[in-house]
Amino acid sequence: MDAREPAHGADVGSGIAASLLTNVSDLAEDMAQYIAERIPEVGGDAELRGLTLGSCSSNLEAVLSMFRHGIDVTAAEAPVTALEHARVMASRGHSVDVMLRFYRLGHEYFTDKLSGWLTDQIDDPAVALRTFVDLERYGFRYIDRISSLVAAEYVAELDRRQNQARAERDDVVRALLAGERIDNARAERVLSHRLTGRQIGFACWTDDRGVDLEGLARQVGRSLGSAHSLVVTDGPLGVWGWVSLTGSPRTPLTGMATEWAGGGEKVHIAVGSPHPGAAGFRTSHLEALRTRRVIELSGRAAPSITEFSDIALVDAISRDLDAARAFVAAQLGDLARDAAKERDERTTLLAVLDAQGSLTAAARTLGVHKNTVLQRMRRAEDRRGRAATIKVAELHAALLVCDVLGASVLREP
Q1: Strands 267-271 and 304-307, how do they pair?
Q2: Which of 92, 123, 301, 304 is the most buried (most CB within 10 A)?
């Protein structure tokens, strides 16, 4: 403790502290009641009320004893009951601010009581004021130190519990993705996620460490029709997510990509198809990962949202990339070159096939004249070496693979 005013002032303060120590039990009960009346979180929690009383008693005894014997406040350590109180507050989900209110209110109570005690015990106003200042300053420094210690313990306990919950959650996710038999009720409790509805898995990733991927994943979940998404990290630049739906998912999701592109966030999202139950949790996730593989093979730079249903055929054909290249080359011939003219001709031919052979519809889709479509189509057939009416299904598939994967399956010009 800092050096205090004349010896008689110090003696008075020590005497007051000694006198209060004889009544610590009653003081602690009164302080605990004072706090409980002002913090509703204490109300019906018997364990928390008991720890609050224990903490009040331990801290009062410590601060008064230390003041009485002139022990520097930096030697103070948080009582065991105070640390346990902090751990229980963390386990109950109360905020650190609520926990620290216990100490602020305890200090308020002590200050109020101290002024009354000094008025009753000391006749000289100057001595009473000096003693009050000494005790109040010491009490404030003590509370400042102890509140920092218990706050650190609160954070440590919160981290322990969050790490434990995260590890347990990750273990359940791993078991589901491995196709292991698990207790669905326990899995739902650990994950806070229903496994009874149709499951949609999705993956989000980026190259920008500044993107709030978890926030974006929850936005994807809301767009899919669920207010709650299960989100787990996939390294520093990726997350996996799932939603459980009872109705149909909201569509389309493409508007989200446009919105994010406007915000400059370079995010890609791959979405699996809906599948029922715990098995669907795994199946939809694997579809999302396969969709991500296709997106990465395509080399897309712009933000994108891609659903597995839109690239399922490309995924199947490109599982063996060398085989996919050979298939494209066999079906397209010289049209399978990675050059601007060939790209325009492939795009035109794909538009015609998508329009079931209608040149007019293809022209409208491409925004060009019908004659331009016809000319490009003829050049495409020349490069292919045969008419577009030969092996139409194979041609359509090859053009679709080229449209999605681009240079990954094309020859150098």
Answers
A1: parallel
A2: 304
CB contact set of 396 (below 8 Å; sequence gap of 6+): 350, 353
DSSP strands (E only) in 86-234: 198-206, 230-233
Q: Are 131 and 9 in contact (CB under 8 A)?
A: yes
Q: Which tokens belong to 115? A: 């002024």
What whole-number distance in Å separates Cα of residue 73 and Cα of residue 244?
55
Structure tokens at 32: 């605990």
* Ranges of H-type helices in 306-369: 308-317, 321-332, 340-354, 359-366
Identify the H or E element spanning 244. Answer: strand 238-245
- Residue 255 pLDDT: 60
H runs (alpha helix) in 178-253: 184-191, 213-224
List the one residue out of 222, 300, 233 whose CA is nearest residue 255. Answer: 222
Token digits of residue 274 = 């809906």
b/e burial code for range 387-398 (CB count within 10 A of at least 16 → b) = ebeeeeeebbbb
Write out residues in the chain with pLDDT < 70, as ranges.
1-10, 248-265
Among 188, 198, 277, 284, which Cα is nearest to 240's?
284
As given in the structure block, the two tokens for residue 74 are 């930096």
Termini Cα distance of the chain: 84
C-alpha of 155 from chain center: 18
How confident is the model over 32-90, as pLDDT tens digits? 999 999 998 777 889 999 999 999 999 999 999 999 999 999 999 999 999 999 999 99
Q: Are 278 and 186 in contact (CB under 8 A)?
A: no
Within a 10 A sphere around the Cβ of 75, how many other Cβ atoms?
Answer: 9
